[in-house]
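Quick illustration for those who missed Monday's session on complexes.
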Amino acid sequence: MTAINQVTDLDIRDGIAVLTLNSPPVNALSGPVRDGLHKGIKQAIDDSAVQAVVLVCAGRTFIAGADITELGSGGPQGASLLDVQNMMEDSTKPVVAAIHGTALGGGLEVALCCHYRVAVASAQFGLPEVKLGLLPGAGGTQRLPRIVGAEMALEMMGLGDPIGADKALEVGLISEIVDGDLTQGGVAFAKKLLAQKRPLVRVRDNDAKLAPVRGKPEIFAAFRAAHARKNRGFLAPEYNIRCVEAAVNLPFDQGIRREGELFRELLQGPQSAAQRYMFFAERQAAKIPDVPADTQKIPVDKAGVIGAGTMGGGITMNLVNVGIPVTIVETTQEALDRGLKVVRGNYENTARKGKITQADVETRMALITPSLNLADLADVDIVIEAVFENMDIKKDIFEKLDAICKPGAILATNTSALDINAIAAMTKRPEYVIGTHFFSPANVMKLVEVVRGAKTAKNVIATSMALGKRINKIAVLAGVCHGFIGNRMLFARTTQSSRIILEGATPERVDKVLTDFGFPMGPFAMSDLAGVDVGWNPKTSKGETLRDRLCEAGRRGQKTNAGYYDYKPGDRTPIPNEDVVKMIREFAASKQIRQRDVTDEEILERCLIPMVNEGAKILSEGIAIRASDIDVVWVHGYGWPVYRGGPMYWANTYGLDKIVARMREFANDDPVFWTPAPLLEELAASNGGFK
Ligand code: 3HC
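Prediction with 3-hydroxybutanoyl-coenzyme A bound:
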């Protein structure tokens, strides 16, 4: 074995050169990896004793892509990837990639320059660059369609999701699935190639799958139309599609040039910068400074969920989806039946779409044990209580759970705003009590805020964060305050959006400004969806607020087909209503609020700046660990457009000094609300930014 450099070894076995990359954690194509590849491949090709080369990776995965930290950082150091790829593709000795883990992005693009690829059965293959606001910039956009065809390449590049080894074998992306030791399998495959004198296949030369789609623009139109809603506002999906069009319509070298132009444009643009920031922000969120990564976790083999409503049902699905059995407790058989029917319905819908099988539906349903008795939670490892948001009910449940659950079980409460410490105080084990704020619908939304109480133990925090990852969520740790990170900032935004409509802008206009910014819906459509009457009390309502008046008029949101907007039964499209606008104007007049033209810019600033200001307070108080955690909460919990990076990232790009200056202007109307948080003021004054 020869060390080529610190991350690359070359071993010649019986005429076959095995080049091994070992650059943890994911063998990303950093400068040293590219150098190692370049020197190693060259050395193997130049060695007359070598007949074929096998490229393999040590550790958990094959090359998982370019080194994202290097992208956009002012020019990579080390060998050029293009040179490495050309050398492999043009080699007169067969080059084979032997793949395990994930061959992603630049990793798959390197493999596509090998003459053959083999893989273990669990390997995955993908070009996920679109998720980083990019496109594959190392020839992948031109080579992948030549192997898998234009339609599948559109799916893989346009959506960024990987495919498994079975599919890869079926479409010819790999030649063989290796059982047992991968390196030995790769070497055996290389020997077979030599024995059978198989040709050196250059993917770039293969036109067979593209010729049939040439002159068929409708496949691109159909793909664009199918994903238009999801892709609204994003540049990268469209640029990926254009690259596949180039692969179909242009000769290879011209296609590569097109790829390069579009790649550079995306790389230098603000969207990819924000999306790459979010990639690292999501991973950073898992790191808790005072809870070391090696903290012993509590094994979670069985769970309990209290409440079979929308939240309880969704949380149950998350757990059984990954094989954790759940005992779900309700107070009446009727509520239990209703909840389980919804869960089954959701699974059957997913099965109808072909995403899971009918057998999966049954396996998952079989993991759910319905119960009407809290005592059935005696031996679970974690209970997630998801009942109605009412402190007295929650306190009562926790007192009972304390008596029922085994020692060492985690007692979690799913709440969007309540005081975890007050709930924990009902038990003799406050160190085992924690908050989990799932977002609705809980089986779909990626975010969970994990809320640590004053006494929550470190292993309980570590276990809850890890459970979040295990159920495929992004968990962000928050401290106790009203609304935690996300809702506390939402309350600040709502204060202003509610005020702006009294000053003259319609709900429709405010919503449009925010959807144009990139949110999936604006504050008023969101309020209609959640229910205008959340927290409203008909017994005490005296028309003192606009909300009182709407609710008194029966306009309680989508569920009554009327709220800030009208709705046709069974249709969620908001329809503006003139009477509501009149009601708003009358209410404003009764409060002597002057009507004026509020510009779109002012609407946006008055909705977003209060969030940034509240975020600054949340940071100073230690409710969030870091600014990027706040961004993760808003991107994954509330639909903040990921290509704008989250509120704190946005604030940095907008300019903190400009934000403070605008707050001073708005303060003429409401000095208390518009007082800048000390941290915001301090950072603005020092030309700093949220880190
Ligand atoms: N570059 C730099 N660091 C990377 C990286 C990459 N491509 N991929 C992962 N990492 C880092 C992560 O930041 C994390 O670091 P940390 O431990 O310090 O937080 C560590 O590797 C482990 O990553 P995960 O926590 O995500 O580990 P998982 O096992 O959950 O997932 C993975 C592994 C599926 C490989 C996932 O990390 C992933 O999806 N990575 C990104 C893949 C990707 O997008 N590739 C394309 C890159 S762009 C490109 O190739 C451009 C080219 O076309 C020119």
